[in-house]
Every structure is written in structure tokens, then in C-alpha cells.
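Reviewer 2 asked us to include a model.

Predict the structure of this chain.
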Amino acid sequence: MVLTLTPNGLYCPAGDFHIDPWRPVARALITHGHADHARGGHGAYLATDIAAPVMRHRLGAITLDTILYGEVRQIGGAGVSFHPAGHVPGSAQIRVEVAGEVWVVSGDYKLEHDPFPTPFAPGRCHQFVTECTFGLPVFDWPDPAEVAREINAWWAANAAEGRFSLLGAYALGKAQRVLAMLDPSVAPILTHGAIEATNAVMRAQGFALPETRHVTPETDLRAMRGALVLAPPGALSGPWARRFRPASTGFASGWMRLRGVRRRRAADRGFVVSDHADWAGLNRAIAATGAETIHVTHGYTEVFARWLSDQGHDARVLRTEFSGETLDDGAEP
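Predicted model (C-alpha cells):
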């Protein structure tokens, strides 16, 4: 068995390492920097060179080694390489080969264009561990250009009436993707501290982002009416957001594809923007692997595994502690 599930996470006996473990281990290979995949407390970390800066920002003084996309590293009896996942900058699928058998762990991924992550690169394998956060046919992502027009039109209408536009988006990946969609000529763009700190890390890496202004207690909000305020979703339901009045509230998430989610979040607008593969993307990615066995995790696992089995795949549910995309994150990415 190349990989096996343990109480700490996915483990490779031949290489004596874990992939995205959820409890402290001696050696952790990390697909990307989101908090449900990159956790503190491990003895040593391995991640892509692009993911490393945000991991250091989030986790502090960790023992972190880096690897380039496509570079093969021999770890004990396992050959390991990292390949683009298209999820967030530096995100990777991790390929593990032992005695000629190849497994690929997808981490989180998407096939849709994004100006920041390296595009998803499918790879052939015998067994594929795939997320299925949005593993239902209803999840069908719209053209990002059309979503950008919707966001800017909502923002411009609010600005014309002197309202703030509060928009919830994950601090790592989603927020920067939304920033790339915005028309800075409408009004200033303000940011929550968690997003601005991530922006600073990415700017230092050379990623081009529009000008943003970090909201601090000294910010004169009376002079900023009409601004778009970008914050983690969890911040929009607390006291931090109540200083922006009058305001219209929106969320950028794949969950906006479901009826009722926007209403339950008491949001005025929902914009379908996700850093995960939609239904069609999941199926295309799986087909491209040619895998004999598919292990599905975090999402609509039972439904998606049943669908894959009906299509002739050997599909199995893998129960992990990854959370995927939610609307309940706080200030952490």
C-alpha cells in the first residue's frame, strides 16, 4: 500500500511521511497553505517554493524545505514530486511512487483560469485521491468575466448611492482573485488585516495586485464611502464590519450557486467564485488521470463516489478532516 489512512492523516510507510496531516507528525508534505491542509506542530515540512512564503507567514518559525514543480525527490523508498493544482499560488498535487505503483493526492484544485496559481496539470496514476467539495451537478461555474462584470456593477451602483460594498472572500487565494476582477476606477478598495497581510506576502513574491488600503482604527471612513471592503467571510458577521454604514453585503463563493445560501447569510448579493473544481472539472480531472481507483474526500463524498461507481470506476470514500470551502472562516486564510 503506497498510502494508508492513520489517525494523523494520510501516511506513506515507504517514505515515513504524511500528506497534509491534521495532527502533529515528524514529517509533513503539504499541498498548499490553507489552514485545513497546512497545520502547525509538525517536525518538518515540505512544500513548493511558491507556497512557502504564505506558510511561513501563517505558521511562523517552522522547519520548511521547498521543492519545485516537477522536481523528483527520493524520500526513503518513495519517489515524490509536486505538480500544479491551480487552487491557490503554490498549490500542488503530490505524486508518490513506490515500486512502480503511483498515487496522486490532489489536495484542493480547480481547472478554471486564475491569474495567480500555476494552471492545473493532470498526471497519470494508478490511484487518485481527489477532493469533491462541489461534487454535485448543480455546481457549474459561470464565465469569470461575467462574474467580474456583476461584481463591478453592484459596486458601482452602491458607490453612486454612497454605500460601502462589503464583500466576503477567503484571505488566501479567493481575495486576490477577486481583486484581479475589480475595476479600481470605481472607488477605493479597502481590506481587512488578514487579507492585506496575505496581499503583502504575495506582492513580495512579485504577484501584481491593484492598490488596496488596509482598514485600521485611524482610517477615515467618512471619506471612503463608496469603497469596496474586502474581508474574510467570518469578519462580516462581527463588530469589525459594523463600522461600515450604510453598506451592501455580498459573498464570493461557490456556495452561492445553491438557492437559499445567500438568504441564510443575510447577504444582498452572492457571486459564484470558487477556488475548487466544479462538477465538470472534477470529472475531467479524474478522467485525465486514468486511475484504476478513485478515493474521494471532503465534500459530497457518498454521492460523488456513487456517481463514479456508476460510471465504471472503482470509487471509495476516504474520510479525512479537511473542510474545503466554507462561509464560516474568520480572519485566518
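The CA atoms of residues 53 and 259 lie 37 Å apart. The longest strand covers residues 78-84. We have added this to the supplementary material.
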